[in-house]
Predict the 3D structure of the following.
Amino acid sequence: MPELPEVEALRAFLADHLVGHDIVRVLPMAISVLKTYDPPVDALEGRTVTAVARHGKFLDLDADGLHLVTHLARAGWLQWKDRLPDGPPRPGKGPLALRVALETGEGFDLTEAGTQKRLAVYVTDAPDRIPGIARLGPDPLVPEFDEARFAALLAGERRQIKGALRDQSLIAGIGNAYSDEILHAARMSPFKLTSSLTEEEIHGLYAALRSTLGDAVERSRGVAAGRLKAEKKSGLRVHGRAGEPCPVCGDTVREVSFSDSSLQYCPTCQTGGKLLADRRMSRLLK
């Protein structure tokens, strides 16, 4: 799933390639991708892209005050085309969900792999009325997101820190991969309760959050859209690397699997050498 760093890189890439250009065609190829119907998607045609913004994991293309907002979900992606194919795409069961064409002949495709179709596209004059955006917590990379605000957000929470970091209504933009990376950098168990965090632990967790996300954004800066997935994977130290040696201590990276996701961690760095039970209601093994 694209998370804050990749979506921020896509935002910057699209700002460079879209702003000042006219949208001549918007072709939805999967009706399920459209989550709004008024205004219709073809109302974007003939408008000029004036800005590209990001709200958490949402991409927002502003075309003269009308917004094309996209959430790529777990298996969605944006594929830039220096030259779009001539003629409309063939309907079928392929991954293409929506195509946007510019007056230059350039454009992009929104695609989604797999059978679970969660890619979402909205057309609206007010992005903050989209439910997923309306409920977003603060962006962790804005200057106002200081340690005091982070501590205030965690105050009163009583749940595992992994889940808290992934909660979009608490903090916007962090998903499964970067929550694993943040907790590894902070040397903290994913199952540690937020209510048990000390002031020192909050300080270390905040520093890990800012550095992990900031470094990922810097690595992705200037990377073409088609290479962002590979760039993300290359920068991850524990997520998706179960069975490999931890780059910090050399211990084997372990995994906890759930019904529809998994997490990875280093026992030496994060849990004092103890293994986490690989079941939904995981606890430290005795």
Q: What stands out?
A: Residues 199-220 form the longest helix (22 residues). The two ends are 34 Å apart (CA to CA).
